[in-house]
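Task 17 of the worksheet. Students: predict the tertiary structure of the chain below and write it out as structure tokens. Keep your answer in the requested format; marks are given for formatting as well as content.
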Amino acid sequence: MATKFETIDDYLASFPPASRAALDGVRSTIREAVPDAREKIRYGMPTYLLGGRPLLYFAGWKKHVGIYPVPTGDSSFEAEVAQYRGAKETVRFPLAQPIPLDLVRHIVELCLASRKQPTP
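Model answer:
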């Protein structure tokens, strides 16, 4: 049975130190980029809610950190994120490499911008 975490701190504490450092960096970057977002565990992973609705999620895995959903951006953004794209609207940052926190911030900004666009 999977562990159920009450808080993001509990979730992060369950990881080994090297993974924890990468996850802490992602968390800090998201919190700096969107300080009004509320942190919560949803679907077993850290979630950032804005206006009561999920903005994005992140999760630690054995070999990578995933961020979801990552909307499609302009061609320069897509070129920057291409090596990390996984499934649709997913990026996977390998734990064997430094996490590109500037790109994480850009992802958060793109999520915020797509949230502000009117729905067709």
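Marker's comment: DSSP finds four helices and five strands in the chain. Helices lie at 8-13, 17-33, 75-81, 101-116.
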